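sorry for the late reply, my laptop died twice this morning and i had to redo everyting from scratch. anyway the thing you sent over, i finally got around to it. pasting the sequence first so we're on the same page, its 292 residues, then the predicted structure underneath. double check i copied it right bc i was rushing
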Amino acid sequence: MELRVLKYFLMAAREENITRAAERMHVTQPTLSRQLMQLEDELGVELFKRGRHSITLTEEGLLLKQRAQEIISIENKIFEDLSHKDDMLTGTITIGGGETQSMSELADLVAKFRMDNPQVHFEICSGIADEIKEKIEQGIVDIGVLSEPVDISKYDFIRMRQKDQWGVFMPENHLLSQKKSISPEDLSGVPLIMAKRESVRNELANWFGKYYDELDIAASCDLLYNTEVLTKSGVGLAVCIKSSNIHDGLCFRPFSPALETGAVLAWKKHRTSSPAVSAFISFVQKCVKGIV
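ok and here's the structure:
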């Protein structure tokens, strides 16, 4: 399987039309059709459902599309990581992270690093910790900002300084909004929106204690923005970390007793990093220690 053929496949999948895809790839339509059919023969599956004027991906085609995008992304990173220009640090650093206060800390570090290294480009992709870890394993992401609790046994890491405060988002007119803080018993029997991650659920279970089994979990959601939308629509109160951007009509009340979690900047152990990634990690380590 050649990278060139995978690029043909991705273009055909995007255009949903062989003729348009061939024009964009600067090959003839018969050539592209033949390459795609040979790819199907090589894999032993049908990748496209072919209509009179368009093509659509089969389930196998959708899976290949995902894997092909990952492969092409890694190819691009190889070229970027190994390209040097006038001895100036260049390349792309891909960082994955979730919705955590530590991303603000990271943003400041990125800005400071680029002041001395303007040719280094950063790509930020969002996701929960489990998704970011998978991308690190695949080589798609160089560094991940992972919200705790998280298993980091396979990673080298730097502990971020900012902490996330846990509490509840609720409508401003909700009865509990009159309280300065929220205790476990306050939420017993109240419809709630909770995180899906099992490790986070376990952390919250420890905080709720005996009241955990009495919770009415109306919905599960890991993205803070979507969680706030569900809360505003009346699905339930959102048990989540504090956000600096709150929807109009909502308010945040912290837990009592207080619950805080941190985050780590993590990268794969024993993996050779590009000069740009290595330089950024070294820079962050110095910043955390107060050296720069």
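The CA atoms of residues 238 and 260 lie 16 Å apart.
thats about all i looked at so far, will dig more tmrw
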